[in-house]
Amino acid sequence: MSVPSASPRLQRVAVLVLEGAKPLDVGIPAQVFTTRASMPYEVRVCGAEPGLVAGGDGLSYHVAHGLEALAWADIVFIPGYRFPDREDPPRSVVDALLAAHARGTRLAAISTGAFALAATGLLDGKRATTHWHYSRALAAKHPRVQVDENVLFVDEGSVLTSAGAASGIDLCLHILRKDLGVAVSNHAARRLVAAPYRSGGQAQYVPRSVPEPLGERFAATREWALHRLGEPLTLTVLARHAAVSLRTFSRRFVEDTGYTPMQWVMRARIDLARELLERSERSIEQIAADVGLGTGTNLRTHFQQILGTTPSEYRRTFTQGE
Q: What is the 3-state secondary structure (H, E, C) of 81-110?
C-alpha cells in the first residue's frame, strides 16, 4: 500500500440557509462534509444573519452564523428553497457570495439554490442545472445561463450546480473525488449507502406518460458490469445480460446514462484505475490488466483522453513520489 502524502489542508464549508430552505438540501452537505478523522473539513451552517430561519416543508433552522461565515469558507453550499423564481435573495446575500467568490471560494448550489447563484451573475455564459421542474424558469429568469436539464450536476470550476435534492449527494461526492480522490469518495458513498457514481441524467426522473420497464434491468446490467471490469465487456455481452437486442440496448443505454455502452465501460474502468493508483503500489501495467485495458499504453491513452493527465501524474497527486 502506498504511503499517503501529507494531510490535506482543512477545508472550511459553509451551508447557506435561505428563507424556505429545503431540509434535505441543507442536510446533505452538512452530513457529507461533517468533521471526522478521515475528512479534513469543518462545517458551519449560516443564514443572512444569525437566528431563526423559516424553512420549507414545515421545518425551520436556528443558525449560529451570519454572512461572515462566507468570508471564512473555502466552499459555500447554497441549498434549494421554495419559490426561487419569484424573487432574488437579499442583496446582502448576493454581495457576500460575490465577495466570497472573488477571494477564491467555490460556490456550489443544490437544486433551486441555482437561482441564488444565478442572481450573482457568476453563471452568465456558463452551463448550469437545477431541478427539472424549475429548469425552464431558470432559463427564463436568467437567459444568459446555459441551462442543461439533462444532467445531475455541472462543474464549472469555481461555480457548481446540481439538480434535485438527491443530486446534491452526487455533487458532494464529485467534490470529494476532486479534493481527496476516488477512494475517499467511495468510502463516503458507502457510509451514506449511496451510489459512488451515477452516470445517468435527471431526465430519467421527469414524469413520462409511458412507463420504462427496462430501467431497472439496465441498472442491474451496469452493476453487474462494474464487478467484471477486468473481463471482456463487449456490446454483445452487455446486451445479452440485459436480455434485449443490440439496437434496443444501445439506444436505451444512451437515454439512461448519456453515454454509449462502451463509453460508459471505459469511464468505469478509468475510475477503477484511479482508485488503484491512489490505494496501491501496483504498476501501471498491472493496473491496466486489472481494469480490462490490457496494456499500460492503452491505460495511458484513455486516461489522458478522459482526465487530461497521465496515470503517473495522477498517482503523484495522492501519494508520495514513486
A: ECCCCCCCCCHHHHHHHHHHHHCCCEEEEC
How far apart CA 157 and CA 75 sit, in angstroms, is 12
The whole-model pTM stands at 0.69
State how far the Cα of 196 lies from the Cα of 186, in Å rounded to an integer.
5
Alpha-carbon distances of 10 from 5, 34, 40, rounded to whole Å: 14, 12, 5
Q: Vertex 265, ends 259 and 267: CA angle to 5°? A: 75
Tens of pLDDT, residues 2-52 = 334 445 678 999 999 999 999 999 999 999 998 777 789 999 999 999 999
| Residue written as grid cell 461533517 | 34
The answer to whether the CB of 165 falls within 8 A of the CB of 22 is: yes
Alpha helix locations (H) across 147-281? 167-180, 182-192, 215-226, 235-242, 246-257, 261-279
Residue 288, amino acid? A
C-alpha cell at 224: 453487474
Cβ-based neighbour number of residue 21 at 10 Å = 30
